[in-house]
Task: inverse folding
């Protein structure tokens, strides 16, 4: 079976890494829309068109399921994609609901990081108003972070300065959870763990998304993939240097996982 993963750039790799860990008998196709990354600062109409074009080109690869490994793309196009294609499609949304539930006992606030476009969507407003009865959720767009991530900028000093500046007006003692609501952001989880006070939990949507994918594959009777965790990388610009970057970034994530497991 081949499962497609789609993102504007390298962010969806943070979700693919989880899939490779949990579903090693599937094969994967990873597509980055390099011609149009970043999505988060563009108009809804433009991004909708980019998504439709890119997913259409992915479908020629005979996918058995599709993961929209991008919160922005999900909020804009998941309903339309589900109408258009009959294969199982899993989307992502910022993990606000579990974060609010986890925080109920502590009375602390929740801080959601996501792209501007995600935070502007009616889908996000609807989600927050549904689950946030006590008004404890604050949202912060981090548009520069997608650029840093795409440039594989992991210099500690630069990134620390960036996060400190972004968070300077927040009293972090009031917060219990930070939600990473963009798939690019978990590339910085390790650094954020060091920068944020230790009482703050950091959550992202990867594990939940792969749990939903697993359930859906079982329902469609394709849980036993018969593959070996192979990944074919593609990008809309067709730039071989970008394919190398995707491979490097996935290695980076998987090595970090290994180190985390060894030290656990
Ligand atoms: N990785 C994406 C997300 O989860 C979008 C980043 C972007 O292209 O702005 O929202």
Result:
């Amino acid at each position: 079976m081949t499962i497609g993963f789609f993102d504007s750039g390298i962010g969806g790799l943070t979700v693919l890494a989880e899939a490779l860990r949990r579903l090693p008998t599937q094969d994967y196709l990873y597509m980055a829309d390099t011609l149009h990354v970043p999505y988060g600062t563009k108009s809804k109409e433009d991004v909708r068109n980019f998504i439709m074009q890119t997913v259409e080109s992915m479908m020629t690869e005979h996918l058995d399921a599709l993961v929209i490994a991008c919160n922005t793309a999900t909020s804009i196009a998941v309903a339309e994609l589900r109408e258009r294609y009959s294969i199982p499609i899993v989307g992502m949304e910022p993990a606000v609901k579990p974060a609010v539930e986890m925080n109920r006992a502590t009375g602390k606030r929740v801080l959601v990081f996501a792209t501007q476009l995600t935070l502007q969507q009616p889908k996000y407003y609807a989600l927050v108003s549904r689950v946030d009865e006590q008004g404890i959720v604050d949202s912060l767009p981090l548009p520069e972070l997608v650029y840093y991530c795409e440039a594989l900028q992991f210099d500690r000093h630069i990134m620390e300065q960036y996060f400190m500046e972004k968070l300077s007006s927040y009293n972090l003692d009031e917060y219990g959870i930070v939600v990473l609501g963009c798939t690019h952001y978990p590339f910085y989880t390790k650094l954020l763990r060091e920068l944020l006070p230790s009482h703050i939990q950091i959550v992202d949507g990867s594990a939940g998304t792969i749990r939903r994918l697993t359930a859906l594959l079982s329902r469609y009777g394709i849980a036993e993939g018969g593959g070996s965790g192979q990944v074919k990388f593609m990008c809309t610009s067709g730039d071989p240097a970008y394919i190398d970057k995707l491979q490097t970034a996935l290695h980076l994530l998987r090595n970090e996982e290994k180190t985390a497991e060894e030290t656990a």
In short: The pocket of D-glutamic acid is lined by residues 7-9, 11, 37-40, 70-72, 115, 118, 146, 182-184 (CB under 6 Å). The chain has a mean pLDDT of 95. The chain is about 50% helix and 15% strand. The first strand starts at residue 2 and ends at 7.
